[in-house]
């Protein structure tokens, strides 16, 4: 009898526990939302710098709509192409686990959405929170087609830093006083560098220092003593930027949707593709203070040497209440355009909040040279050879200049088993060893064009050292890896020394990023685990360099079972 009662109690307890687990599981997922949006890509008149241009926008907005979600939420975004160009959208920094079909780079994971057609991006945010962004990933449409993607913690989970009174997305951009697609088309024809931008922007506006712009300068009202979270995004096409707010210190709390150890600075350096979250306390005399951004230019090349501004405006500042005469805003002290020391001083302070899991046993040890090159012309006087000394500009990784396929996307060709679209023999090291940052022989300046991928087994532990070269010019190349974030374990100037430099690697609390710059004339090392199957683009986020071929792609093979394999493509995936 006692045995029977004990059995009944055990069964009852197990039944109760099962029901509790089921309801807890349902409650956890009931918190997650599905966000349905329609993004209509269309031309709209936009006036900047005294002139109106028919500008490609999303839903008529420039910048485009801000998406605000929570970790665990699903997004279903129908992209309708009412513009005259092919287009795709990329959700920059989203892991897209097992789902390359939603990643977006044109001819890599999908064929483009043609004019008059649509495609619905479906993806779930998994264990990510912070500031990311979205942008077009077709040619130069990214110049105006972009917006913020803000991922809040799950309900009931606070920020790991003081709660701000308000949160403000700060989108830094570039503006051309002409159609950016025409700028690219001319550069493609001539082989020369594309024209530089005419202005930088903050949330789409150039600011006080440009013609016909003062009335539309963006203003951010704050109350004295308030803490504000600035979610800074560099959505510029081709330029790293310094950013600061006059007389205010910035406390860095996250980069690329990964929390950091808190530290305070007066200026940040942020590369295209990167995000930086900073806390600002309104602790100054009530007044008007410029926030400003201008170029960090590490290359020996022309650049836009202008400055964009917005205004941090205290609500109790003199002149605000009665719309009277307002004081001239105070300007921040920003480093000089070529101040690499300030740029490195900022990035070298980034650390994860605590010890993180970094791969220690490496399966794939890759050494990638990144930089520019020149294609020699048989007729140097040709109108198609207007680069230096009658050449055409190019760029490469390990001397391979990446060419996007035309007949199909890489991912669709791989999934369908279509041959002849790509090969998997991308070199793990440069074909020739040389003094990468020294005086490089002109015989090494011309890269080879091709569509080569590098194959990784699922679960492989990968290390990549990106080595800048002095071919044409040294430069900070912001390298972005789709589908992953990675630990930045070390960097330095000059040529990487595999015997000495690894001893200085930070394998305890390195920062995690999705985009990292190579120090000009130097190297940077990253590590990650290849736990996301599919084809994932790696490229320089300076779009002029991407167009020249500074890219490659990883083919990460399926693992074991459904949870380690690419999910089937959606039925509405565009075809080439």
From TrEMBL:
Residues 41-154, 167-316, 425-558 form the Plastocyanin-like domain. GO terms for molecular function: copper ion binding; hydroquinone:oxygen oxidoreductase activity. Keywords: Apoplast, Copper, Glycoprotein, Lignin degradation, Metal-binding, Oxidoreductase, Repeat, Secreted, Signal. NCBIfam families: laccase. The keyword NADP does not apply. InterPro entries: Cu-oxidase-like_N, Cu-oxidase_2nd, Cu-oxidase_C, Cu-oxidase_fam, Cu_oxidase_CS, Cu_oxidase_Cu_BS, CuRO_1_LCC, CuRO_2_LCC. It comes from the Eukaryota. It is an enzyme of class 1 (oxidoreductase). Its cofactor is Cu cation. Residues 1-32 form the signal peptide. It comes from Populus tomentosa (Chinese white poplar). It is found in: Secreted, Extracellular space, Apoplast. One of its GO terms (biological process) is lignin catabolic process. Its EC number is 1.10.3.2. This is laccase. It catalyses: 4 hydroquinone + O2 = 4 benzosemiquinone + 2 H2O. The lineage of its organism: Eukaryota, Viridiplantae, Streptophyta, Embryophyta, Tracheophyta. One of its GO terms (cellular component) is apoplast. Its main location: secreted. Belongs to the multicopper oxidase family.
């Amino acid at each position: 009898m006692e045995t029977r009662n004990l059995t009944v109690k055990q069964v009852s307890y197990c039944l109760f526990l099962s029901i509790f687990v089921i309801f807890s599981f349902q409650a956890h997922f009931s918190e997650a939302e599905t966000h349905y949006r329609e993004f209509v890509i269309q031309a709209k008149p936009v006036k900047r710098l005294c002139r109106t241009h028919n500008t490609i926008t999303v839903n008529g907005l420039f910048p485009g709509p801000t998406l605000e979600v929570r970790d665990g939420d699903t997004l279903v975004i129908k992209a309708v192409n009412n513009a005259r160009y092919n287009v795709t959208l990329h959700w920059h920094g989203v892991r897209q686990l097992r789902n390359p079909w939603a990643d977006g780079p044109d001819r890599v994971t999908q064929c483009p959405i043609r004019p008059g057609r649509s495609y619905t991006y479906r993806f779930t945010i998994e264990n990510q929170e912070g500031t990311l962004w979205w942008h077009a990933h077709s040619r130069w449409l990214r110049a105006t087609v972009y917006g913020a993607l803000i991922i809040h913690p799950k309900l009931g989970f606070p920020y790991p830093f003081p709660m701000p009174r308000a949160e403000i997305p700060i989108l830094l951009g570039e503006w051309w006083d002409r159609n950016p697609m025409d700028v690219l088309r001319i550069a493609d024809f001539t082989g020369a560098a594309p024209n530089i931008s005419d202005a930088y922007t903050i949330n789409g506006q150039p600011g006080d220092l440009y013609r016909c712009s003062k009335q539309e300068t963006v203003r951010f009202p704050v109350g004295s003593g308030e803490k504000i979270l600035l979610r800074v995004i560099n959505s510029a096409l081709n330029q790293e930027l310094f950013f600061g707010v006059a007389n205010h210190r910035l406390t860095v709390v996250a980069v690329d949707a990964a929390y950091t150890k808190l530290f305070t600075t007066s200026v940040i350096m942020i590369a295209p593709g990167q995000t930086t979250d900073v806390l600002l306390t309104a602790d100054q005399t009530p007044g008007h203070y410029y926030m400003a951004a201008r170029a960090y230019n590490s290359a020996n090349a022309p650049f836009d040497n202008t400055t964009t501004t917005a205004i941090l405006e205290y609500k109790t500042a003199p002149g605000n209440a009665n719309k009277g005469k307002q004081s001239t805003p105070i300007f921040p002290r920003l480093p000089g355009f070529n101040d690499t020391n300030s740029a490195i001083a900022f990035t070298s302070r980034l650390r994860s909040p605590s010890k993180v899991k970094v791969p220690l046993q490496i399966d794939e040890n890759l050494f990638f040279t990144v930089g520019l090159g020149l294609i020699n012309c048989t007729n140097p006087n040709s109108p198609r050879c207007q680069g230096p000394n009658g050449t055409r500009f190019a760029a490469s990784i390990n001397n391979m200049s990446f060419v996007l396929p035309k007949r199909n996307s890489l991912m669709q060709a791989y999934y369908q088993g279509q041959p002849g679209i790509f090969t998997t023999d991308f070199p793990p090291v440069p074909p020739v060893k040389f003094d990468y940052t020294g005086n490089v022989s002109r015989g090494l300046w011309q890269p080879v064009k091709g569509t080569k991928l590098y194959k990784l087994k699922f679960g492989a532990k990968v290390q990549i050292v990106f080595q800048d070269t002095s071919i044409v010019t040294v430069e900070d190349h912001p390298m972005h890896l789709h589908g992953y974030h990675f630990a930045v374990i070390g960097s330095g100037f000059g040529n990487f020394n595999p015997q000495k430099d690894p001893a200085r690697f930070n394998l305890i609390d390195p920062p995690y990023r999705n985009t990292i710059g190579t120090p000009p004339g130097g190297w940077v090392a990253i590590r990650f685990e290849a736990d996301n199957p599919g084809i994932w683009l790696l490229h320089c986020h300076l779009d002029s360099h991407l167009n020249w071929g500074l890219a490659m792609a990883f083919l990460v093979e399926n693992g074991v079972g459904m949870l380690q394999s690419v999910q089937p493509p959606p039925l509405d995936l565009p075809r080439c």
